[in-house]
Fold this protein.
Amino acid sequence: MESFPWKRFRPARSVRSVQQNGPGAGAAADAQPFRTERPAMENTVTIKDVAARAGVSVGTASRVLSGSTSTSAASREQVRAAAAELGYRPDARARALRSARSHAVALLVSDVRNPFFADIAHGAEQAALASSYVTLLANANEDTVQQDTYLEAFLTQRVDGIIIAPQGEGSGNLRDIEQARLPLVFVDRTVEGFDVPSVTADNAQGVDLALAHLASQGHTRIGFIGGPMAVSTGRARHDAFLRSVARHGLDDDPELIAAGDFRSASGGTAAARLLAARRPPTALLAADSLMAVGALGEVRRQGLRIGRDLALVAFDDIEWFGELDPPITVVAHSARELGETAMRLLLEVIEGRPAESVVLPMELVVRQSSACRQATGEQPSVLLTPGPRPGTA
Amino acid sequence: MESFPWKRFRPARSVRSVQQNGPGAGAAADAQPFRTERPAMENTVTIKDVAARAGVSVGTASRVLSGSTSTSAASREQVRAAAAELGYRPDARARALRSARSHAVALLVSDVRNPFFADIAHGAEQAALASSYVTLLANANEDTVQQDTYLEAFLTQRVDGIIIAPQGEGSGNLRDIEQARLPLVFVDRTVEGFDVPSVTADNAQGVDLALAHLASQGHTRIGFIGGPMAVSTGRARHDAFLRSVARHGLDDDPELIAAGDFRSASGGTAAARLLAARRPPTALLAADSLMAVGALGEVRRQGLRIGRDLALVAFDDIEWFGELDPPITVVAHSARELGETAMRLLLEVIEGRPAESVVLPMELVVRQSSACRQATGEQPSVLLTPGPRPGTA
DNA sequence: CGTTTCCATGGAAACGATTCCATGGAGGAT
DNA sequence: ATCCTCCATGGAATCGTTTCCATGGAAACG
């Protein structure tokens, strides 16, 4: 496989595919094959070809193309032209192999299908792109084993750095990464005992904002739909809830606490459990948006109306939360900003600059789901007014 | 940088990071730096080290580790042991460089934040993982330029294949990919004139299911919230709508058609436009889930009730669509299956096996948003019954 | 017992880039 | 004019792996 002339010519396609999604009948079963004899990409133009065409050495070609050391205007032009004509595309693998820099970073979230993480991913990805890094986005699927599988893959792919929303305790590979001093940043979640910069939300503040808001509406029995204790945000919000309940002098009935797994179904079951308590809550705080959606459905199924019979506040805002009926009050931080910041931190670490952890403040966005004042409870508070219909900030 | 003994020993961390997300005040400003003098991963164990430790040549070590040709039981054991002890992790880049196979595939969707694509991504990713391929997931952001940027990146990263939900017409890089015969699969969308296997939904059938359902409820004026015409699914659903309207003898008033961009906000404005028509529709069909959510909000803002005053059917099911108020009727295909199938196809193409395009059938899931019979119109149809409250399939 | 076959192995080439090193020439200073 | 400096360049080493080729020895076969 030398620099044969065939590299310059593109052979006409020899076989053709089938069935360009004809709007016809359902399942297609006939098998006109789509063939590719030579599986990988053929027709690769290497820097050697470019150099030959430009009439310079590969060294010079490389210098021009990676724009490092000084080159003459003449050869610069020659090489550029040759590269353009041949449609040269540098091989990132070869480049990375030699220069110990892949310009690829990895982002491992626990579930892309969770809009919160999708936003994080989006933010991080855009930030990476702006610095011309490629992002390998992967999905731990809320599963420690899969998390480890991907970390292993990132390690063998020799990415320049990793952003992770970690599951559980530090797995073996996570330790390896830290010890190998591969640039690593935690986003949204952290793991105890890891010496790694992180971007997180101020969970304590967020819980406090939510409870202060509900307390000011007269609620004293507030149910908490928490996240898994294996995740740092789950723990943090749970602990913050306890402290904040105490601070505001609310009922600290253990029956008012239920745990979910950050997915919508678990929010439903948790809500059911809370509502079945001997003295049910008059307001709910969900530690995550998807669980809030689940709770919303369950509450409605029980014939209660959120925003009238029961107040609901959720963590994490989502684009369409304002479109729900009723629009849901949230304590939120911009997930996109979380992702962007994490990527910024990672790139700084990669470039050897100092990076410090960031804690983003949370913000309360009042919508109609928490418009109801405490009414069903036993302490008859102020007369029930329609409540100031809050703008949908 | 030779095979020095330090490779075996992990130097103690020399500097420490800061601030493990103390729940303290919001913005952290003090700057105890987190330093990484040696940016890339240090401490890399190569196959040479493994070979040396096992007392064999690198050739033998490679043969054992990649398990290709025959090796003696003795050396196999030696090499395995040495690799394990040293914590050897093969360098995927070097491996790919030599063997022209990276075991990485790329998936380019138009917007991860759209739950539909998040599901596709999830399905594809899991399928890839099962065949031990890594997935580079990227986000075209509904933007042709960014799509091209990522395709360029994939090309230089020398991925083994690409799955894409393409934007617009075939961009330059997309053509290059086809001509280079790099394995390529379209998912959900296609591009005219490309000779590439695809996995799509049977849009014509889907539209027809929806309209048949609405027509059977007595609706004759059905508003269509379409997608962008620059996207194949947008065009396909639009055309199918026109045909299906004709087939069922419904009103084909051009005022009943509005176009959005597959994001929730555009669904709201489209709904507003439709409802402002001289003779407004009694039912809406949205070409995408997010636009349906937007429409839902707008309709409610106008004081109408979906499922009572106005029927709504949407394309693409989402986990929490059943949790909305009212639960939304959809014509759906499993997005996860779409992703899985696309990945299966891609892997087949990569391995040189024949692959044929797949058209997945769509299914109607009746929920309450379409429970209302036509009532506001002028032709007094059958007496208004409560309508068979359909199960939430 | 001699010859052929086959298998495991070591050494080296190759993959496609970057980077080091030596060199020749141009230009500036003396 | 001579020397020194510096810049552009070609050639070669290198990154970590796979794969080709040659070889030595054991097994099989006559």
Q: What stands out?
A: The domain at 102-201 of chain A is CATH 3.40.50.2300 (Rossmann fold). The first strand of chain A starts at residue 104 and ends at 109. Residues 1, 44, 46-48, 58-59, 62-63, 65-66, 68-69, 90-99 of chain A lie near DNA strand C (CB under 10 Å from a C1').
